[in-house]
Each structure stands twice: as structure tokens, then as C-alpha cells.
Specification:
Helix content is 27%, strand content 13%. The protein is an alpha/beta fold and 726 residues long. It folds into two domains: 287 residues, no CATH class; 277 residues, Alpha/Beta hydrolase fold, catalytic domain (Rossmann fold). The protein has an eleven-stranded mixed β-sheet, sandwiched between helices. A three-stranded mixed β-sheet has the order 2-3-6, with no helix packed on it. A two-stranded antiparallel ribbon has the order 1-7. Helix 13 packs across helix 17. The longest helix has 26 residues. GO terms for molecular function: hydrolase activity. InterPro entries: AB_hydrolase_fold (IPR029058), CarbesteraseB (IPR002018), Carboxylesterase_B_AS (IPR019826), Type-B_Carboxylest/Lipase (IPR050309). Belongs to the type-B carboxylesterase/lipase family.
Length: 726
Amino acid sequence: MSSQDTVPADFMGSKSRPRRFLLSTALLSAITVVALVAWLYVFRHGPQNSPSPSSAFTLSDLEKGNVTAKPDTDATATAGSNSNSSLPATALMPASEPAVSSAPVVKLRQGTYIGATIPSSDSYPKAIEAFRGIPFAETTAGESRFRLPVPIGPSDGTFEAVALGQSCPGSNATNATGEVTIEGEDCLNLNVYRPRGARPADRRLPVVVYVHGGGFNGGVGTERNMASFVSWAKEPIIAVNFNYRVGALGFLPSAVTAREGLLNLGLKDQQLLFAWVRDNVAAFGGDADNITLMGLSAGAHSIGHHLMYYSRSSTPAPFAKAILESGATTARSVLYPTHPRHLKQFREFLIAAGIAGVPEQDVFPTLRKLPVGTITRASRAIWDRYNATVCWPFQPVIDGPNSLSNSSHAIGRPGDDGGAIPASVIPDLPVESWREGNHLRIPVLTGFNTNEGTMFVPQHAGSNEDFRKFFTTLIPGLRTQDLEALEALYPDPVTNPSSPYKTVLKGMGRQWARLDAAYSHFAYICPVLQTAHFLSTADDATGRPSSSTVFSKSSHHPSPDGGVTEERSASPGAGRAPVYVYRYAATGTWGTANHGDEAPVVAHDMGVVAPRRGGPRPGIRNIADAMHGAWVNFIVSRDGDPNPTTTTVRWAPFESPLAAPGSGPGQSHVMVFGEGNDEREPPEFRSRPGPRRPGTAARPETLSAAEVERCRFWWERIELSEGVGR
């Protein structure tokens, strides 16, 4: 379905913006009635009666144990499928015509927006004012497809901001509230949530901006219930979530894309949004000097890239702190756009889109003329082809001058960096940016879940050969001695009686737990700890690590420039960025703490914390109180301290134990949330008999020697999955 065939969720327009209709009072009233009826129906009957899309990256899939991605269909409507959703946003009360004056209103340069109120309830202890579907960029349809985002123009019109805006094509995502959204190319929109009446004159409110996950191939800003996050906060805050382009439309690596200067468009969407928040949040009562970015998975990977980018930017970073959940700039792989994997996937995408024979110079003009459904189906087909091996297509890539990126042609919005959105967002290998100190030194809260790999690795792998094949496919540069070291670090449960990976669920292969552990370290845990390491050891003057000596090149493999090993000493410095590291341990599907399981707990989403069905979860409630409270404290505090004023369990800043051998261990403080809790385990996946266990809400731990050893293994081989393919 083309963008012309879809009906936008917001009807806007003025003489300066002909693509949107200015809302007359009558039209506003009609739309309000329709929206209210729809919300009340879902609120009464529950999202389980709404259509349910497939997604490889949704909470509902994790809860159900369904992690198989399916191809897109022609349908563009998506809805939430989490039967435990508390549906707070379905209780939105749009203002009817006589009550418009009492609805929340905000005046921006781009127009006046009329929002709605979410009344207080068991799910929402405080009423929330919501402004939804506000555009921050023009449509990306037609000739604007595969282009840099263009900021929204000025308007003196008045617009409704009650319904969610379009989600980006191919997002195939679940909204935390269960509401239906329409996919379309006019999708660069945002939502703002603030406590009702909380606009104190004496101070501006702290702001958090949520960056969604989805492997850069899916996802939507409303995947996390940020209205709940705001409502449960003891201190008043403002939250923003938004969409960015995903899949081939947002991340299409190739030599052709590089020469056109069109790499990493989804990251550039994010940067435009950050600038929008900085410039507009004061109108909502927010503090532009106290903005925190928060992201999960691909959202956290993205934030990691922005930590690097804004250290080089000619304008100050539009955020002051960052929360990275299960993600990092060095996670998985960051390749050049000319890596053979990306080039092969690009060719396969063109074949799937039916334009394989088009001359190179006509590729993007032709793609701009295709129905958007053709592009999303081709994008999903390539995703499905590579999903099982985790060699994912359509990822961020190095886009600096040496990647063929036409960095001299920076075109886009005026303002930042000499008048344009820069062509280069990831100019260098992320690990080199860490080593050279090219990163912001700001407070960061980051962490991981115990079993990050369960939903990604092959479930039926049964032999050591299967174990080897998975990693040699993912990282072809691994040598025989690397594989032998890998096998020693993660003992084979089939042949080694002392292997810690012997216990697996019925129906799972005997290598599943072993693969989970190894992939968790490679893709999530060790990259997260790498972020914590470099930020906590950065010298105040140089930004380089100051903990004695650290490896700046692999001692096991040639680096991309031909070097083998280089060690660098840096003098100790003060003013290191405070970093707080967590581990989420409460078990759910498969009796494990899976990727993304912490998301609704952090949001204090009562659909998961206290569901209507399945029995009480007092332990999860305690964990949610602890995690949500710490996250809010971090956001509110200008120095990023997650600790409350009084506490019996103090969360200490991380000190890295991962400097070079012999330099002495640091105090690797990690806060563990939910150890021993099994209240979210489905009956078929109960890991322990007997009554449900609440576990421990929060307790500190330090990294084990085994954890440090495993991360050293992966770090010493990082050049095998970064900066390859130029």
C-alpha cells in the first residue's frame, strides 16, 4: 500500500503545509468522538480482541515464547498483542467541543496542539497530560524517501494531538497500550507525557527521551509505556517517545548508498528529534538543560553512537545523561557499508524489490517510485533470510570519509554543524572512538539481563559442531585457536560433566544454554561493560583510559590498518563520568531473564507488574518500585545519581576490573534486580516446583573472575566484528 492509500492518524494542514488539513472545530469534534469510541471499546474488551501483528522484538512475544519473525502482509494497521496490558492510554479523555478550553494546550513554532488527559487510576496513580502524534519532520514519502529528514515548518494552525501518529513502514511493532496504529511514511512523529498541572514556575521539569529498540528492522516509540513511567514517578518529569525509520528505509548499507550520502538515515532521524526536543521542550514545561536519553537494545546501541558523535559536533550535545539498557555502541558488529555481507544483502534486497537490473545511478530514483509495501516486503524477506544466523541486514555502519560516504555533501536541516545534518554519524570504529577518547563524558546508567541470548540463538542446536557453526557464521574471522579458547570458556554440556550449561528445557537442544551464555557475552554483556569501562576510566583531559595500561589493538588479530598489538599508557585523571551498571535477573519465559524482560518493569507498567490474570506478583512490584525509582532518580538528578536520599542498599558507581592484566582490579559494582524471582514464568516454563518466589528486589554484587575472563576474550577479538569490509 502506498502512502497515498493510507489515512494519516493526524489530519493537519495550513497554507504553509498543504499535506495536512487544518482542524476545524467540527472536524476536531468528529475525530474526537471516533477516537474516544475506539479507545473505550479496547478499554472494555481488552487488546486480546484486537488484531495482533508478528514481531521479533516485542514484549508479548517474549511472554509467549514466540520469537519467530514472519513476513509482512499488505495490511498496514498494527496493534498491541500483550494480553497483560493495563491499557492506560485507552482511558484517554479527549476534549469534546464544549470542553476544548480545559484540554491541555501547547503553543509551538509549528502550531498550537491540543492534547488529552489520562485520568488517574490503579494503573496511573497521577493523571497524565498527553500530546501525541506531533510531527518533528516532514513526510518521508515520494521524493523524500531515502532522503535526510526535513524539519517541520512553521504554522499558525491549531492541531489535535490526541491519537497516535503513523508508525514507520515495516515497524511491525506492538504498542505497550494495545492501541492500533497505521504504518505510513509520514511517521516521524513524537509523543509527550507530563503530569497534569505539573508546570511549576520556579523550575523546569527533567526530561527523558525514549529511543525504541527492534534490531533497526522494526519497533515503534510506544513500545514502552512512558505515560506509566511518568505517572509513577515520585518527582515530576516529562517523557518523550518517537519513531524513526527502520529496515531498508532507514538503514540500507551499500557502496551506492555511501556515494549518495544516505547511510544511517534512521540515526539522523533520531538526531533531528533530539534537536526538536531541545528547542521545544520548554513549551511543555521541560528543562532543556536536563535531558536524559533512554533506550533499549537498538535504542541503546543508537545512544552509544550519539555519545561518540556529539563529542565531535560543533554544537553542544542536546542531552546531559544517558540510560542504555542491553545495548552499546560496540554491540554485535559495526561494519563498513562495503562489507561483503552488506553488499550481498543489498543485491538480494534489489532482487526482492524487483529492480535488480536497474543501473546504479537509477537505484534510488527507482526505489522512490515503488509502492512502500514493495519495499517493506523486500526488507522483511531479507531480514527473515538472515534472522536465524543473527547476521542481520539493514544495520548502522561506519559512514566516515573512508567508507565512501560523501561527507562533503551534508544536506538537510539548517542549524547544527555548519548548517546541515552531517553525512557522517559513525565516522570511525566505535572501539577506536573509545580508545581515542572521542566520546562524551556524561553520567550513564547501563546494564544487561542475565540471559540476553535466549531469543536469538538456535533453540535446537545439539552438538559442539552446531555451537562452532553458529559463531563461525557470525564471525568468519575466528581461527581454530579462537574456537578452542571459546570452547574452553564455555564448556560443552554434552562431553563435560562439570559444564554449567547442562540443564536445558524440554524441547531445547543441548547446546542452547551454552549458546545463550556465549552470545550474551559477545553481543550484549561485554559491550555494555565496555561502555562502563571506558567511561569510568576516562582521563579528564584526554578522554583516554587512565587505568594504567589498556589494550588499544587486539593482541590476537591484525587490526584493520595492519597493526598487531599496541599498548598505550595514560596518566590518571579526575572527573571521570559516573557510570552505574545493573543486571536484571528475574526469570520469565523459558525460566530465564531474557532480552527485554526488564522493559515493563522499568516502566512500572501495571499490566505486567500486577496483571488482571495469573495471580499476584508482589516480588515484581518490589522490583518495579526499585528499578523505576532508580531510573527516575537518575533522570531527575543533575549528576545522575540513581540513589534515593535515604537507602539501605546503595548503588555504587562502577569501577572497571577490565584494565590490562596486572593493573589491579577495580570495584566492579553491579546492582542486581530481581535475583530469585520467578513470578513471570509461564506454567509451561516453570524452572522450579512449588510456590512462586518473590526473590530479592535489589542487591549489589561484583563481577566474577570468570565474567572478566570472558569479556577479555571477546574484547581481544573485537576487530573481527568491527571495521571490517572496507
